[in-house]
Amino acid sequence: MTTLASGTDRLARDALTVLQPGFTGTTAPDWLLRRLGEGLASVGLFGRNIASPDQLAALTAQLRAERDDVLVAVDEEGGDVTRLEVRTGSSFPGNHALGAVDDVELTRRVAHELGCRLAACGVNLNWAPSADVNSDPRNPVIGVRSFGADTDLAARHTAAYVTGLQSAGVAACTKHFPGHGDTAVDSHHALPRIDVSADVLTERELHPFRAAIAAGTRAVMSAHILIPALDPDRPATLSRRVLTGLLREELGYDGLVVTDGMEMRAIAGTHGIERGSVLAVAAGADAICVGGGLADEATVLRLRDTLVAAVRAGDLPEERLADAAERVRALAGWASTAARVPDESRGSEIGLHAARRALTVTVAPGLGGPESFTPLTEPPYVAALTPVANIAVGDETPWGVAAELVHLLPGTETGGFSTVDGTQGESAGRAALQAAGPRRIVAVVRDEHRHPWMASALDVLLAARPDTIVVEMGVPEATPRGALHLATHGAARVCGRAAAEVIAGAIGIARA
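User: That's the sequence. What structure does it adopt?
Assistant: Structure tokens below.
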């Protein structure tokens, strides 16, 4: 264990310990290394910090040179939310694809392999899996990050994911407690509210979290959501009734409680991150996640000093802050000694195997069934109907099928259409038709059911070109249409590859 800098005030040390800050750049700044010597025990990494596995391994080694038991956390769900492969797309399908297959052993193996890759890079805490039951199809922030809308399915796959990830020596952080699935508001932008009874919450939202706790999840992340049936006044992250009364006392959870990002508007726009951090620790949170947006030394020092001042003013019990800091150190101790899997496990294609199994294929009536589909032999035109990405997913990660089709059908061309450039449904469809010319069209969508403009664009394309192939890379809630409809249940790179293989005949539909 690293010896802390002499003379460091105990309160300030504990206040630093409960913070999980971020930073900019691909090497650790001097200020961060200094704070590790003063008590900081966790660091959160984001896509901006990761350029390659070797660079990430060097970065985590740099951090451990200052504190050998530092917790290095990352938001690596696989699927749509990837940080390891933020510039290429993930080698692993996300939760919704795994739920579509519904093979818990496959989920465990995928999570284990993902954990092996994280561990090999020096990451030992993963802010995953999402245990949310996606009961509201309008949900703008969970969607394919959920295993599905079925409570039992979400529970068994959450447990399998936790088991697989932690078997690689990486702590799971199950999120977003007590469940973010029944929301039509993104907590990055505003405070969502779930108006259901306590009985519904118990039977639906909490079931996957009970399964995660039973599986031994080392951490749980709170949600910035207001649930009046549990606490009519404060969102879950700031609610003692939720974090202590429900999670600790009723569910019997004794691991680390981490907040979702405190810069999210659900907290920053209501209580502010300083007051919010004090309320969160007082409510039962042990680690304050900050750094997705505010990633500088001034933020860390401001939050440290705010927590210390709150203790001295009597607004935050000193023993609660000390308990939170001790829980962070306990997880750091577990992670520093957890079993590691040999590096030769890397390179597995379990992710592609899972993505292929997750495909749902629908052939238009009258064409004689899946076996009658004739794969493309000429390069098509790929029309990507692109929605605005939510903050959790980000817009820096490529998605779709065009890049994979280029390898299989050289000469494939692509164009993107969205509402950002002022293009609306019908005009997007007409623009795609004009751009495609005589080429066969592959239309790629993401959550068609949530985007009326996207559905209108498909109407135009299919009316003019009934042989259009449609690839749905979000939640396949809309009725399948097109000469061939492929639902990938996520937009990971391997999901795009699996779809492209079917389109080009590299694998048969029966195997998909």
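The CA atoms of residues 69 and 333 lie 6 Å apart.
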